[in-house]
Amino acid sequence: MKPILEIEHLRKEFLLHNLRRKRILALDDISLTIREGEVIGLVGKSGSGKSTLMKCIYRTYLSSTGSIKYHSRTLGATDLVTATDHEVLALRKLEITYCPQFLIAIPRVPAVEIVAAGLRERKTGHTFSPIHLAKEYLLRMGLPGELTDAYPATFSGGEQQRINVARAIISQPRFLLIDEPTASLDLQTKNTVIDMILELRENGSSVLLISHDEHTLHRMCDRVVELVNGKTNS
Ligand SMILES: Nc1ncnc2c1ncn2[C@@H]1O[C@H](COP(=O)(O)OP(=O)(O)O)[C@@H](O)[C@H]1O
Ligand SMILES: [Mg+2]
User: Fold this and answer.
1) Which residues touch 85 (CB under 8 Å, ≥6 apart)?
2) With the CA atoms of 61, 64, 65 and 70 taken in that order, what torsion angle do they form, in degrees rounded to the nearest 10?
3) Does ligand 1 come within 6 angstroms of the Cβ of 49?
4) Among residues 7, 91, 162, 194, which is most buried (max CB within 10 A)?
5) Rounded to the nearest whole angstrom, what is the distance from the C-alpha of residue 50 to the centroid of ligand 1?
6) What's the rounded Cα separation, in Å, for the pair 134 and 117?
7) Which residues, including other chains, have CB under 8 Å from residue 159's CB and lie 6 or more apart?
8) Is the CB of 48 under 6 A from ligand 1?
């Protein structure tokens, strides 16, 4: 399969201005290739750089040096280190989705609306109703029917997590960055969520997954990459 993402010699340094300009080298010479249809697991101790790597790819953080070549269907090969903000926003709208570890629950927006927004924000050319599909996703994930129209701010951790994941995958992104999607789920729900993320792969999507859960890693990943102090250990 063709590569979708090629990371070469990536470094990310944080400069802490309030600590006498102390430097933290969060990513140290990372090189990694992800192919179309591949699911890569990212593991490592807390503080090893996993979230920083995802945020550099999504361009929440600007990398210090190196390159992250993304082979876009619409823009062609694009280096996410040097791409313009305009290009980055276009890719987020069309192809790349980032699912953070925790849901940011917006007050007085029902669960089903939050999930449907994941589809509306994406230009997919779909013809079905976003609300209808959102409901289907949530019910399949085992969210009790009466909760689909309720406000997630008061939901349990596991219920919020399902809304978070459903929102990220409903538009079937071509490239998904997903941080700990199954951490607070029981085994049955975990397996359903894993199946639903894996269905993306059947359309050729690629996934970069952070997880500490052996079961999730074993079921989902074609390959696992370990980060140790900002370096790949593989
Ligand atoms: N915004 C930031 N500012 C300064 N330091 C940061 C920032 N984000 C992460 N770091 C530092 O980078 C290192 C890697 O953190 P992180 O990527 O969050 O690790 P992980 O996700 O593997 O737990 C840590 O030393 C952390 O303190
Ligand atoms: Mg993290």
Assistant:
1) none
2) 10
3) yes
4) 162
5) 8
6) 9
7) 143, 147, 152
8) yes
Per DSSP, what are the bridge partners of residue 207? Answer: 39, 176
**For residue 23, what are its two tokens?**
């430097």
Closest by CA position to 185, among listed 159, 209, 208: 159
Kindly state the tokens that stand for 79: 């280096």
Task: Write out 78-123 in H/E/C secondary structure.
Answer: EECCCCCHHHHHHHHHHCEEEECCCCCCCCCCCHHHHHHHHHHCCC
Q: What are the tokens at 233?
A: 């250990």
Say if residues 16 and 185 touch (Cβ distance below 8 Å). Answer: no
Amino acid identity of 46?
S
Are the CB atoms for 222 and 38 separated by under 8 Å?
A: yes
Instruction: Tell which one of 24, 54, 209 to mutate to probe ligand 1, the residue whose CB is within 8 A of the most ligand atoms.
Output: 24
Measured from the Cβ of residue 5, the count of other Cβ atoms closer than 10 Å reads: 22
Cα distance between residue 196 and residue 137, in whole Å: 9
pLDDT tens digits along 148-205: 999 999 899 999 999 999 999 999 999 999 999 999 899 999 999 999 999 999 989 9
pLDDT confidence tier of residue 26, bands split at 50, 70 and 90: very high
Residue 228 Cβ inside 6 Å of ligand 1? The answer reads no
Distance from Cα 176 to the centre of ligand 2, integer Å: 16
Residue 104 token pair: 């940011």
**How many C-beta atoms surround the C-beta of residue 183 within 10 A?**
17
Secondary structure class of 58 (helix, strand, coil): helix
DSSP 28-72: EEEEEEEETT-EEEEE--TTSSHHHHHHHHHTSS--SEEEEEEEE
Q: Which domains does the chain have, with CATH numbers?
A: 3-232 (3.40.50.300)
